[in-house]
Amino acid sequence: MPELTLTPAIATVIFVIACLAGYRYRSVWKAEGPRWQLWLFGLVAAVCLLVLGLTPLTGG
Hints:
60 residues; mainly alpha
């Protein structure tokens, strides 16, 4: 079974996606926008951060 690891470049991309989703979550929340958008952006940010927190990086 292959070991699941992230390269630094992929980890950076995932981090940027998490930051953008978190920014959109906050924008929708402050504007009192639709709840489905809160859930969408919140879940995207949460999943990205969980992947980053629980998946090891390659040694390089």
